[in-house]
Amino acid sequence: MKDSLILALETTCDETSAAVLKNGSEVVKNVVYTQIDIHKKYAGVVPELASRAHAAKIAGVVKEALGPLKPDYIAFANGPGLPGGLLVGRVAAETLAEFYGAPIIGVNHLEGHLYACELTSTPKLDPLEFPLISLIVSGGHTELWLVKGYGQYKLLGKTRDDAAGEAFDKVAKLLGLGYPGGPQVSAQALKGDSKAIKFPRPFMPGTFEFSFSGLKTAVSYYLRDHKDINIANVCASFQTAVVETLVKKTVEAAKKYKVKYIAVGGGVAANELLKSTMIEEAKKAGIKARFVDRRLSSDNAAMIALCASKKLQYGAAKGKININPNMTLRNWKKK
Length: 335
Ligand code: KG4
Ligand code: ZN
Known about the structure:
The protein contains ten helices and ten strands. With 335 residues, it is an alpha/beta fold. Strand 7 (142-149) and strand 8 form a beta hairpin.
């Protein structure tokens, strides 16, 4: 890894990003163009508009990230994600790989969110400690994994319907707050009483699966059936129901599999209540919970570059690079 430069691309959803990672630890540049302004009037990501924006922005974002540097490897997130965005990422990555004569590395976007927990603001990494339970919470995914080491996974459970971030976005839409909903709902929640409304906790006992669509429906029924809505109270009560569910299941998984570490990544990891509650509840059980740095919780290419460097270190970076919108977790195999 010494002196090697990885150029990574991220185009799976609504951020067009390119990053350069040096020596497997130093983020030289992480350029993120967010498409929020394009999608906010629809209160959600419009796939066709997302792919057009990726196609329009990717060259400029790469140019800004790379400057005069010459990359040794080209990485890109090849799934899961929206097909149009993935295609833009693949064409750009293959063109760059051909131009620079550099090998190409495909990275699972969700693994990127996990390893992003190691990135600090200094060139040094803060390595994960294994075995750990990983909670990946984003706009598209809510998954619990047992991670025994780099590239060694067992999927414990995922959401059967809406992802946690999606539930935040949909509740924000019901309340007429802006998009993305997570930051809006959590800002409102600060002013509200979390005990004001008793929304259901979708605990799904006996499984490590999640289900947030019933909770979202409970919010919509509450809004339909009540006059004089206190938006802050709705937000605080909803947020607490989501956070309690995520924390309970994650800590339960850590206890069941007798692991001492929890790592939380993905856009919803920026939620302050989730962070403080998880750290506190884990601590009571002698477990150390850590969160991705807030600035790197949402989609970015630095996390894709870091995961690519891990794959290189573990001899798992080669192979055919197909895009896969429904990509699932796979254990790394030495190539
Ligand atoms: O990881 P991410 O940037 O994109 C996906 O891969 O989906 O996650 C975006 C999601 C959105 O649903 C957004 O509402 C949510 O993360 N989010 C939050 C917060 N900040 C962003 N959810 C709850 N609280 C927040 N503070
Ligand atoms: Zn993501």
